[in-house]
Amino acid sequence: MKIREIEPIVLTSKEKGSATWASTMIIVRVITENGAVGYGEAVPTLRVISVYNAIKQVAKGYIGKEVEEVEKNYHEWYKQDFYLARSFESTTAVSAIDIASWDIIGKELGAPIYRLLGGKVRDRIPVYANGWYQDCVTPEDFAEKAKEVVKTGYKALKFDPFGPYYDWIDERGLREAEERVRVVREAVGNNVDILIEHHGRFNANSAIMIAKRLEKYNPGFMEEPVHHEDIIGLRKYRANTHLRVALGERLLSEKEAAFYVEEGLVNILQPDLTNIGGVTVGKSVIKIAEANDVEVAFHNAFGSIQNAVEIQLSAVTQNLYLLENFYDWFPQWKRDLVYNETPVEGGHVKVPDKPGIGVSINEKIIEQLRAEPIPLDIIEEPVWVVKGTWKNYGV
Ligand SMILES: O=C(O)[C@H](O)[C@@H](O)[C@H](O)[C@H](O)CO
Ligand SMILES: [Mg+2]
Fold first, then answer.
1. What start-end ranges are recorded for coiled-coil regions in this protein (predicted)?
2. Using CA atoms in the order 266, 272, 273, 274, what is the torsion angle rounded to 10 degrees?
3. 299 is catalytic
4. How many A from CA of 386 to the centre of ligand 1?
C-alpha cells in the first residue's frame, strides 16, 4: 500500500499539562492510496514550528513509498538526510511517520503491534508515576502528594528534587534536595521505587556530590545526572558512584544507543520511540539493551499516542524495568483523544488488543483542538520543568 498523504497536526488547549512542553501534542496522520489511516506522534519541546516543518520535509521522502517497508523507508531517509542522527527535528519526524506506518500495518493485518513483534511477554505493564509533583516546593508538599500517588497503587515514582539549581549545586541545594527525598522515602515506605530525575543539568562534580547525599535512600535510578553530551563527566560519575544510571530520552539513533550501552554508561535505557526512530529502531534498541544486561524504561512524557505505542513495545520487552507514565496527570483532552482506553489501574496498564497502536483516535478532538504552530514564549521556568517547582523556590 503506497503512502498518499502525511499530515502534521498540532493540538493544544487551554487545559495545560504538568510541564509546558506537555501542553501541546504534535501528531501525524498517514493515509495510504487505498484510504488506510494511521497515527503517530512527534516531540514538541520548544520546537513546535521546526518539528511541524520537518514533518513536511520528511514526508516528501515517504510519499509514494510502500507503507509496509518500514526498514527500507527509514534507511532511504537516513541516506537522503545525511544529518539524520544529528537532527532531533528530523528523527522525531521520521519516528512519528514510522509509528503511523506500523499503526496502518497492524490495522491492515488486524493485529496489535505486539503481535507483529513476536508476541507479548506480559499482559500488564508496570508503570511509574511522573508529573505528580506540580507546585511542590517544600518537603511536605512532596511527601503529601507522594502518599496520594502510592495510595492509587503505583509502586514507583519519579521526581526532580533540585528546584532551580542548574549546572552546579551548593550545600543549601544538597540539603534541601536530601530533605525532599528523605520525607518522600518516609512517606512511601521501602517497597516503592524512588527515581531521581536530574534533567541532565549538572556538572560531574555536583552530580557526584548529589549521589553521595542521596544513596542512603536507595533510589531506583539516577536519571541523566550530567549534561547530555558530557560523556567525560558521565564516565567520572560512573567511577564515583555505584548508583544505577538511567538515560536515553535524547538518543536519536540505534548507533547512539549502542554506544551508551556497550560502553557501560547506562544501567536503565530510556529510549523514546517518538525521537529514536519509531518502532523500527526501537525494537532493535531493546535487543541491544537486552544483550548487554541493561534494562529498559521507555521515556513517555508527551501524549497519548506515544503512550499507546510504548505500551505495545513494553509488552514485548523481556528486560522491561518500568514504563514511564504521565497518564493520570495528562490534561483530560489527551485521554479523550484515545477514548481513555489505557487507564492506569493499580500501578499497571493493561495491554490493549486492538490493532496497530492498540487505541482508536477520536477525530472530533483533533478537529476541536487543531492549532497553528506558533513560537512558545520563553519564561523563567524552562519548558521541561514540572510547573511550579522552580519559580516558587526562592533562591
Ligand atoms: O524523563 C522525563 O520524563 C523527562 O525528562 C521530561 O520529559 C520531564 O520529566 C517532563 O518534562 C516533566 O518535567
Ligand atoms: Mg528525564
1. none
2. -150
3. yes
4. 8
Ligand 1, residue 386: give the atom nearest the CA.
Answer: 13
Q: Where are the beta strands (DSSP E) in 280-328?
A: 295-296, 323-325
Domains and CATH numbers, the chain: 3-111 (3.30.390.10), 115-371 (3.20.20.120)
Length of the chain: 395
Q: What is the ipTM of this complex?
A: 0.95
**Residues 383/46, Cβ–Cβ less than 8 Å:** yes
Task: Using the atom order of ligand 1, give the atom closest to the CA of residue 383.
Answer: 11
Cα–Cα distance measured from residue 274 to residue 276, given in angstroms and rounded to the nearest whole number: 6
pLDDT number for residue 193: 98
How high is the pLDDT of residue 274? 98
Phi, psi for 347 (deg, rounded to 5): 75, 15
Count CB-CB contacts under 10 A for residue 86.
Answer: 12
DSSP string for residues in 230-293: -HHHHHHHHHH--SPEEE-TT--SHHHHHHHHHTT--SEE---HHHHTHHHHHHHHHHHHHHTT
pLDDT at 149: 98
**Residues having CB within 6 Å of any atom of ligand 1:** 19, 21, 130, 197, 199, 249, 299, 301, 324, 384-386
156-211: pLDDT as tens digits: 999 999 999 999 999 999 999 999 999 999 999 999 999 999 999 999 999 999 99
Grid cell digits, residue 141: 508538599
